[in-house]
Structure to design on (635 residues):
């Protein structure tokens, strides 16, 4: 069924594009089109527009050793299909330039800036070619993801300055905030341009916690990569490790035992619960609604305790392993989870009652930080933030993995796209998570929890999408010898940071922390 | 105010523990410091290669674990059930670098 639909995409190509496709193959649910570098933009634009296919990821590989060129990969997800279109284009031999997709596909913006920094390839015609990942004191001509850049290289620091967007006019002034913040949060710089109270421009500058994870992964054997993936964004360790394991399992065409799929589902939902309760409490805190916040954090603590009780780790580390999960859930664990959930559910509804009837809270969250549906689509925003702006997308339903295709759940959505809508969507998602865990524990078959995965063929590529608490995240691996040749990771935050620049416009500065909290993005996951 | 009282959110009572005056006991499943039984160790060094972060080294003294590096993943205990167990020990803070070395002497 999927294969036919994908073949139809090739058949439906307009003749001038059809002639530009050098090869078209379907691999599983992935249509792989190879084209010339000059036709990449028009082909991608066609599929992006004709099939309302958001850009899942765009990245490069350094194939100079074998083929004397760099390659670009553009992956799109046609609406209404559990399938992907991967467009592959090799740059001309020894060339380091390609035509930018951003003027045609807006959401390619940051991906292309990242490719420019990490591979030293120039996106011709990019509307904003400033560095994204590399910091101001990084020297020119050093590109970490090139294969001839050794892992242990420490380039000298040079003097440099980042050209922030300047907004000028009478009474306009700038407020620089960060990268070091007052609370124990991660580093990021926010440059506000303000006229009176309202924000008229915000520029987010990140990259301060860039750890080189994609580079490290290229020298990390697969089994060890799971531990690495758990640390991409500390509070999304199950989501990232599941995506990583699923990618490697797909590379080896391995079948994971069904029981392991169910256990992964339980863990993924436990992760969502503690994250989203944390988000909701944070929103209460930032509206100075201390009673709500205190009760919320108490609940989050109980959820973390449940994690520890089941897995030995509050943040659910070491749950996943390539081929399944590390530890089974006993009948006793099941009982403990069910009874803990009964209490959690009741107390969560108390918390919700408390919050939605607090007029002081509602006054702060309604109409604050609005993100329109059009903007959410234009920027390809993901996760609860997108859904609160009316976008109907959830990887668990649209590209099911683990045991999600055997469970029933709703995908809550809002319309207003304000802090209130994001809070409500997160509240409803917690409710769905409670029900998903109940169902998964009920439906869990007995059997093995782990299978041996070996013989991962070099040169093969695979991808996995997972709906993390922050939204869809992606792992893509091109296999090398016993380790990835290239490992592309895209956290949900990478898609959503730009949306915050939009959502704050016209809001007053004191509402920024609240809007920021309602997005709750990861710096570490973005910076990689 | 009525709502608050009805919900009982003001009657949560004391939710914290008087730690460290009283010990905090983690759950049974908790994964803390790996403990090596020196007498059961035959110096095969499988644990050294299984550790993803090079936290284990074999010395003349015995098996040494660096709590500065260990991520408490349990890989070592998985390859060596005969000698390594993940304990529930979590009070691992030290005031010197030396204090982050835990040595299990060969028996
Ligand atoms: S602790 Fe176990 S794995 Fe490590 S050297 Fe001793 S016997 Fe071998
Ligand atoms: S628990 Fe993991 S990190 Fe710690 S010593 Fe064992 S293998 Fe190494």
């Amino acid at each position: 069924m999927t294969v036919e639909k994908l073949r139809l995409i090739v058949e439906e190509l307009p003749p001038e594009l059809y002639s530009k496709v050098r090869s078209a193959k379907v691999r599983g649910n992935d249509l792989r089109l190879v084209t010339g570098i000059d036709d990449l933009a028009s082909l991608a634009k066609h599929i992006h527009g004709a099939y309302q296919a958001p850009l899942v990821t765009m990245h490069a590989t350094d194939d100079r050793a074998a083929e004397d060129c760099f390659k670009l990969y553009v992956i799109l997800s046609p609406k209404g299909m559990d399938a992907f279109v991967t467009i592959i284009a090799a740059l001309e031999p020894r060339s380091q330039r390609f035509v930018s997709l951003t003027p045609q596909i807006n959401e390619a913006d940051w991906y292309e800036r990242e490719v420019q920094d990490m591979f030293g390839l120039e996106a011709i015609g990019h509307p904003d070619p400033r560095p994204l990942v590399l910091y101001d004191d990084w020297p020119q001509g050093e590109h970490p993801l090139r294969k001839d850049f050794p892992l242990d290289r420490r380039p000298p620091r040079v003097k440099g300055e980042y050209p922030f967007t300047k907004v000028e006019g009478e009474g306009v002034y700038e407020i620089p905030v960060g990268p070091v913040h007052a609370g124990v949060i991660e580093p990021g710089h926010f440059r506000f341009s303000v006229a009176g109270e309202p924000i008229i421009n915000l520029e987010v500058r990140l990259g301060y916690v860039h750890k080189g994870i994609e580079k490290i992964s290229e020298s990390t054997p697969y089994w060890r990569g799971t531990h690495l993936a758990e640390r991409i964004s500390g509070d999304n360790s199950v989501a990232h490790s599941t995506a990583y394991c699923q990618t490697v399992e797909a590379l080896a065409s391995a079948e994971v035992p069904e029981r392991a799929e169910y256990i992964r589902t339980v863990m993924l939902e436990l992760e969502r619960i503690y994250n989203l309760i944390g988000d909701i409490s944070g929103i209460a805190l930032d509206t100075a609604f201390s009673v709500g916040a205190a009760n919320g954090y108490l609940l989050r603590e109980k959820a973390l305790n449940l994690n520890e009780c089941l897995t030995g780790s509050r943040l659910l580390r070491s749950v996943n392993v390539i081929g399944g999960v590390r530890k089974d859930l006993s009948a006793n664990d099941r009982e403990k989870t069910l009874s803990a959930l009964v209490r959690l559910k009741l107390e969560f509804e108390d918390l919700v009652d408390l919050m939605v009837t607090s007029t002081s809270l509602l006054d702060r969250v309604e109409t604050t930080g609005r993100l329109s549906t059009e903007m959410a689509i234009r920027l390809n925003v993901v996760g609860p933030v997108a859904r609160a702006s009316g976008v109907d997308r959830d990887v668990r339903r649209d590209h099911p993995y683990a045991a999600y295709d055997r469970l029933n759940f709703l995908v809550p959505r809002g319309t207003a796209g304000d802090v209130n809508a994001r809070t409500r969507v997160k509240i409803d998602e917690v409710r769905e998570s409670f029900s998903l865990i109940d169902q998964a524990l009920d439906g869990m078959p007995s059997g093995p929890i782990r299978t041996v995965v070996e013989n991962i063929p070099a040169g093969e590529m695979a991808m996995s999408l997972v709906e993390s608490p922050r939204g869809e995240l992606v792992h893509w691996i091109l296999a090398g010898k016993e380790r990835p040749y290239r490992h592309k990771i895209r956290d949900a935050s990478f898609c959503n940071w730009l949306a915050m620049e939009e959502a704050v416009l016209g809001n007053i500065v004191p509402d920024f922390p609240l809007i920021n909290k309602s997005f709750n993005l990861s710096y570490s996951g973005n910076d990689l | 105010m009525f709502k608050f009282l009805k919900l009982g959110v003001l009657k949560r009572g004391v939710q914290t523990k008087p730690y460290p005056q009283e010990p905090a006991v983690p759950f049974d499943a908790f994964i803390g410091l790996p403990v090596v039984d020196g007498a059961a160790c035959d110096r095969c060094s499988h644990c050294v290669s299984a550790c993803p972060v090079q936290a284990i080294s074999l010395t003349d003294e015995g098996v040494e674990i660096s709590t500065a590096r260990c991520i408490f993943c349990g890989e070592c205990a998985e390859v060596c059930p005969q000698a390594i167990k993940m304990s529930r020990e979590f009070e691992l803070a030290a005031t010197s670098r030396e204090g982050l070395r835990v040595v299990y002497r060969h028996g």
Notes: Chain A touches chain B through 21 residues (CB under 8 Å). The first helix of chain A runs from residue 2 to 11.
